[in-house]
Amino acid sequence: MIKLDLNIAADSRYSFDRKRVKAALLKTLEEQGMFNGVVKISLSVVGDRKIRELELKYFKEDKVTDVLSFPLHEGEEMPEDFDGINLGDIVVCYPQAKRQAMQWNRIVDEEIEFLACHGLLHLLGIHHD
Which residues, at least 6 apart from 39, have a Cβ–Cβ distance to it below 8 Å? Predict the structure, then answer.
């Protein structure tokens, strides 16, 4: 059984359905079939300026992006049997999510959910090209 310990930090002006995001992250973990026990994740929802600062500081690119992931166990094999693990941090840019939601004809909650799950896959070491 998976227990998700999700810490969400977001400015009050960035309104989104936190329960929906947590349920989607839990479903993604279950779909990956990797976890038993407690999984800890930190999710921050920030503005354009903060995501740009993080992108520049950690990835040397001066741009606004939609989601960043900061895994605590990058490059390490996940143990098959454990009581709990802190996977790391996911940072979602709310204004970018809002722009993308409009572009894809989705509601903002759907886009935040999608980006958080995308970030989680990166924390799990699943990357795209």
Answer: 2, 3, 4, 5, 29, 84, 85, 87
Please report whether residue 12 resides in a domain: yes
The greatest distance separating any two alpha carbons of the chain, rounded to the nearest whole angstrom, comes to 42
Strand spans (E) along 1-129: 2-10, 37-46, 67-71, 84-93
129 within domain boundaries: no
- Give pTM, 2 decimals: 0.90
Query: The CATH number of the domain where 88 resides is what?
Result: 3.40.390.30
Dihedral, CA of residue 116, residue 122, residue 128 and residue 129, to nearest 10: 110
Q: What is the pLDDT of residue 85?
A: 85
Domain that holds residue 72: 2-123
Mean pLDDT over 93-104 rounds to 98
Place 36 in a pLDDT band, splitting at 50, 70 and 90.
confident
pLDDT at 109 over 80: yes
Contact 25, 6 (CB under 8 A): yes
Q: Is the pLDDT of residue 74 over 60?
A: no
